[in-house]
Automatic annotation (TrEMBL):
This is Hydrolase. GO terms for cellular component: cytosol. It comes from Faecalibacterium gallinarum. The keyword Hydrolase applies. The keyword Hydrolase applies. Keywords: Hydrolase. One of its GO terms (molecular function) is phosphatase activity. Pfam families: Hydrolase_3. Gene3D superfamilies: 3.30.1240.10, HAD superfamily/HAD-like.
Length: 294
């Protein structure tokens, strides 16, 4: 198969947890693949502003980015290819709910994260997650959405909060995705997007815009929010350090992120190298409250 693009998750696929950027072998492989004419697509739960830093990517310059779990697809210059922003009704429901229960809430806009509730908590949480590349602005004046609407939200709340939200606002169909582990206080982190949104939708939008079939796309990921993309791609590859659900969604399992599994996959598919074999053990995260955010 003549594959045209590689769509890669960020955390624990492109970059090992706890490290600031991809390892040299992965950087070299991605650049070699791009020089051969294939496109590199960063696919992440984060917003464009949080990943648009070549230094954070070890010098890799992505050709496209699927951001906010598929809700916004952009080219390397930040021009929108496809988007599915939250509606005002969806956004206001989240604000009202988090106000009622004092839950931290941020909205993921194209230019930055804005905390609409619990700014100090979110600021301090990101500060503790050193090396994550995440930060937020104080948006508690709640006027940023007057420019354009956010593509996603991020909420920190106990598990029962999602059920309470759905009891009141279930008709909106918002999709809550738990990311990472429960923190010591019993709170979970949730990415929130519109109904039906995931990285697979973003990948399909991108392939349509590029005029190529999904069969010519390779996807690599490691966790639950990658499952849609792994299923949608012509070849879905889960890291051997991935979660059971991601492995089940993939066509094959490849090498561990700490053993340059993505680099081996590129050498195999684009340059006829040896088959990228799975190896290594599952990895944990050094920052539990926010792990799996990519």
């Amino acid at each position: 198969m003549d594959y045209k693009i590689l769509a890669s998750d960020f955390d624990n696929t492109l970059v090992p947890f706890g490290e600031k950027c991809p390892r040299p072998a992965v950087v070299a492989a991605v650049k070699k693949m791009q020089a051969a004419g294939a496109k590199f697509v960063l696919s992440t739960g984060r917003a464009f502003a949080a990943v648009n830093h070549p230094g954070q990517l070890g010098g890799i310059r992505f050709d496209y980015a699927i951001t906010c779990n598929g809700a916004c697809v952009l080219d390397s210059k930040g021009s929108i290819v496809a988007e599915h922003p939250l509606t005002p009704e969806e956004m206001y429901a989240l604000v009202d709910f988090c106000d009622d229960y004092s839950y931290p809430l941020q909205f993921n806009f194209r230019d930055a994260y804005y905390a609409y509730a619990g700014y100090e908590y979110l600021r301090d949480t990101y500060a503790r997650a050193k090396g994550s590349g995440l930060a937020c602005l104080d948006g508690e004046d709640r006027d940023r959405h007057l420019i354009d609407m956010p593509h996603a939200a991020f909420m920190i709340a106990p598990a029962e909060a999602v059920e309470k939200f759905q009891e009141k606002y279930g008709y909106l169909g918002l999709h809550f995705m738990k990311v990472g582990a429960t923190d010591p206080n019993g709170y979970n982190s949730y990415d929130v997007v519109r109904q039906g949104m995931d990285k697979g939708v973003g990948l399909a939008n991108l392939c349509e815009a590029m005029g190529i079939p999904l069969s010519q796309a390779v996807a690599a990921g490691d966790s639950a929010n990658d499952c849609g993309m792994l299923r949608a791609a012509g070849l879905g590859c889960c890291m051997s350090n991935g979660t059971p659900d991601a492995k089940a969604a993939a066509d094959r399992v490849i090498g561990d992120v700490r053993e340059d599994g993505l680099a081996a996959l590129i050498e195999e598919l684009w340059f006829g190298g040896p088959e990228a074999r799975p190896s290594g053990a599952d990895l944990g995260s050094p920052w539990a409250a926010l792990e799996g955010k990519a």
